[in-house]
Amino acid sequence: MLKNLLAFFFPPLCPVCEKVVNEGICCTCLKGIRLIRGPLCTTCGVPFVSTVPPDHFCGECIKKKKPFSYARSVGIYDGTLLDAIHMLKYKGKTSLARPLGMLMADYLHENDYDILAPVPLHKTRLKERGFNQSLLLGRVIARKHNLHLDYLSLVRLRATRPQVNLKGNERTRNVRGVFEVRKASSFIDKKVLLIDDVYTTGATVSECTSALRKAGARRVGVFTLARVVDL
Amino acid sequence: MRWNYIKPALASFFILGIVFIGASLEGTLPENHIKNFLNSKSGPLGMRVEGVLYRSPERRLDKSKLYIESDKIILKDRDIDVSGKILLTVDSLETGLSYGDRIRFLARLKEPRNFGNPGEFDYTGYLARRGIYVIGHSNTERWSIKLREVGWRFWMSIEDLREMAGRFLDGEELNNGAILKALLIGQKGEIKRGVRDKFARAGAAHILAISGLHIGIVAFVFYGLLYRLLRLSERLMLTFDIRKIAALSIMPPVLFYGLLAGFTVPTQRAVIMVTAFVIAILLGRSKDTYNTLAMAAIAILLFSPMAILDVSFQLSFTAVLAIIYITPRLRSLIKREDEIGDKFESHSILSRLKDKALLLFLISVSAALGTSPVVAYHFHVVPIMGGISNLMVVPFIGFLVVPLGLFSLFFLPLWRGLASILINIADSILELSIWMIGLVAEIPFSAIWTGRAAVIEISLVVFTIILSLSLKGRRRLQLILPAILLVSLIATHGWLYYRNNYYEDMKVTFISVGQGDSALVEFPYGRRMLIDGGGSYDPDYDIGKMVVAPFLRSKGIRRIDYVVLSHPQADHAGGLGYIIKNFDVREFWWNGDSDLGYLDRILRSRSVEIKEKDGLSEPLEISGVMVEFLHPSDTPLDVNNNSLVIRLTYKDVDIIFPGDIEEEGEGELLRRGLGLKASILKVPHHGSRTSSTERFLKAVRPDIAVISAGFNNPFGFPHKEIIDRYRNLGAEVYRTDIEGAVHVKTDGKKIKVERYLYHNHP
To answer: Does residue A22 sit in the same domain as residue A63?
Structure first.
């Protein structure tokens, strides 16, 4: 009754296109999400142009080994996902966190982690935005899969320039040594899944991984909502 | 059709149904309503009644207004249980009463009554929507005794708090204590008239009455404060959604303010609106502002469907709607927002301040633009300085004075010293904003006179605004369509103007001004004459301002070519001061009897040409109408009998305006042997039996007689035998006290009479 009444006064809208829906993101918008399917790089998760299985290392990961065990993303960073992430991050539409987090939670099959850790924001950016979008996504996943979420131990020490406007090399330099684990005991001998919204060059998550490994994490996986793919 | 769309539509129909049922139900009152006992026999000082104050008294200059829920009337032989609310006016500031007091009082009670003029404020409807069908007046010493206190404890303590706040504000020796009282506890009765007029001229009068604007700003300010406070803790930010916490925590201060303001109808609405927005934020649907607004409107209308007729309701909602719709569109017209990059550029404080000021300006302009059709419809004048004065006043008063004052009152019971410091800061800021208001008020041409905006004009304005803002990207259409609309708007306005000014008829409206005279003559092709301006014996009620001016404005009239005063007596001259001060008056005619008092000063300051006329003055012609001066002659008579008598003749139709002449004046007219024939006669001296002598009427032989008198006036005008005398001579009798404004239209041959109250309620 109360739910219906609320639905009348505040009809549930698709958070992306604002059409009336029953729940979550509408079908039209969901179709605008290009899910990442195999074959892909077993380490960094980049999808290959060829549709022939099996998965294998990509050229990049052969050249230089990534610090994390593997990285996976739900979809390609364009269309609906790009719009949705922009709305979430830059327009403060935090109501998007739930449906987007559910997308991630549904994608996550294996359940071999001890702890979820969102990529932290620096205090000034957090203040500006009022929330950490990776944490909001992580919270939904953690609840769905009943996992522990640690959002306080891993911290960002400096306010870096936004990665968005930088190129590959600059990105790596930009975030070098930026992350640190405050409470050393948190990650010792744990299998950690790092949560972020977008994977571009992997510079940020790599830096986080190093910090987590230094703090004694046994294994670090990376899971992002979207990933930049140059096809 | 998608079910999703149908469901809300069905529900809306359902709710509309409830609204209309509610509307029709409000018309029935219980049988024991006090309204049905107003004719019971009672003494000269009125009726003895018992009841409970359901609100605290309101102060208005030197009067108090009491809201009483009656339950018993005490007659000579028995008591009767009654019900119903009474609005009682008492000629005293200190009643010693407050909410919850049960009193027995003596008052003259009556049903409220509109004057019955086109364009007037519907006072009766306004009261009825508040459940009040009986008003009363007490001016005796010891008019009431307090029996005991029976009110609801919670409200009593709120009232105690308000009273304490009032005493605190009185005791602090502030420069603007009266305005602070209005802004913080909703008591605006003590603001001096000059200050009030200054605000009105600057288009900022609305700031003095606590409304949605104030509550909204308080909500906004506290949200900002709390959000910034919560942001100090990183941990809080990570663990909770601090936006939701901040939204939820604005409810206590908003309620505190609402209660402090007396929780009047507009404040209740504002609190509901804020609550709706808070719920929307909590549900994460904060971007659906239109839905939220609609939900607030529906919630309010469910409980009081007739609220939609309240001007304050219409203004609140159109203002918010305009801010939601117009502001972002204006903003995107002014600057293109770079979605991502912009966010990360480190802005300098100066440019951020500039952005904020621009936004505030746009909000102010949007609200003014959006409400202008409503304002034009109800007030017939649209202040154009509103955009500027609000920009200067709202930030200071809204963002600083009101929050500081609220903090001060909050700390009052806890730490008086701090409360005193805070209120004095608020007072100084207020001083500054009043100074600025004064500057804006000095700017001439600060308002557009629209007349009563026609519905078609309002729709055209609204369409123009919406179209010119919504056709994003289609630049050519964006220019062409509004241009077409604008042209048609000008054309419609022009056509209405033409229709109102270029006619070949002569029109006379006997304005219903209560006990007094006032008639507007519209000559063919648009020249106008106002004969007398009514007047009341209550110095606080200016008939000119409250009755005659709204009527003239509703007709879009600004210029009056001739103002005629039949004789300098309060019920004819009282209302003219405001008219001469505020309208473009060209000539002033009167009989030169004694002196004009303060009218003389106003006439001179407005450099109106003053002409003395008497029975020997040369007749003149105005647009084909002959104007003759019949009286007074040089025979010395008293004030009434010395009235200037004029006759207007348009082809075969003539009208005599004899002012207040009585038997002697009529005799003098007859003695001088003038032809007195007239088809229409304004009945002399409001239908008094000392006038309208048989001989005079036989000389005039009117077909139509119009009596201008006050409803239930203390003189008993018009006397019954006089009405009969006219009827017996075959004249149709019309009277403003019962029928409202009487409008006579003639092409010089045929005469058509319309009565405003009968026109509206056949």
So the answer is: no
Give B344's contacts in chain A (Cβ within 8 Å): 161-162, 164-165
CB A168 within 8 A of CB A161: no
Q: What is the ipTM of this complex?
A: 0.78
Question: In chain B, what are the domains?
Answer: 34-151 (2.40.50), 161-336+348-449 (no CATH), 455-501 (no CATH), 506-757 (3.60.15.10)
Please list the alpha-helical segments (H only) found in chain A.
2-9, 27-31, 59-63, 79-90, 97-107, 123-129, 133-145, 168-175, 203-214
With CB atoms and an 8 Å threshold, state whether A10 touches B295: yes
- Residue B568: which of B619, B621, B517, B496 has the closest Cα? B517
**Among the listed residues B356, B365, B354, the one whose alpha carbon sits nearest the alpha carbon of residue B330:** B365
Element (H, E) at A76: strand A70-76
Give the total number of structural domains in chain A. Answer: 2
Distance of CA B693 to the CA centre of its chain: 41
Q: Residues of A with CB below 8 A from B295's CB?
A: 9-10
For A131, which of B2, B11, B237 is closest by C-beta distance?
Answer: B237
* A123 in reach of chain B (CB within 8 A): yes
CA B541 to centroid of chain Cα atoms: 13
Residues in a beta bridge with B106: B48
User: Among all chains, which residue has been given the structure tokens 């229409």?
Assistant: B680
A63 and A145, same domain (yes or no): yes
Are A22 and A91 contained in the same domain?
A: no
Pairing of strands B653-657, B680-682: parallel
- The answer to whether B238 contacts A132, with C-beta atoms less than 8 Å apart, is yes
For B132-141, B374-383, B602-611, which range has the lowest pLDDT when averaged over its residues?
Answer: B374-383
**B129 vs chain A: nearest CA distance in angstroms?**
26
Supply B32's token pair: 């024991």
Instruction: Determine which of B2, B3, B4 to mutate to test the interface with A (most A C-beta atoms within 10 Å).
Output: B4
The more confident residue out of B131 and B462 is: B131
Contact yes or no for A9 and B295 at CB 8 A? yes
What pLDDT score does B9 carry?
A: 59
Same domain for A98 and A8? no
Question: How far is it, in rounded angstroms, from Cα B638 to Cα B627?
Answer: 24
Report CB contact under 8 Å: B4, A20.
Answer: yes
CATH number for the domain that contains residue A171 = 3.40.50.2020
B231 Cα to chain A: minimum distance (Å): 6
- Residues B254/B218, Cβ–Cβ less than 8 Å: yes
A107 and A2 in a common domain: no
Greatest mean pLDDT among B143-152, B412-421, B721-730 lies in: B721-730
Residue A145 sits in the same domain as residue A205? yes
Instruction: Answer yes or no: do A64 and A132 share one domain.
Output: yes
The closest alpha carbon to B257, from B216, B224, B316, B215, belongs to B215
When mean pLDDT is compared over A40-49, A150-159, B282-291, B733-742, the highest value belongs to: B733-742
Domain membership of residue A81 as a residue range: 35-227
Q: Which amino acid is at B69?
A: E
Do residue A110 and residue A223 come from a single domain? yes
Q: Would you give the distance in Å from CA B178 to the centre of its chain?
A: 21
Q: What is the pLDDT of residue B68?
A: 94
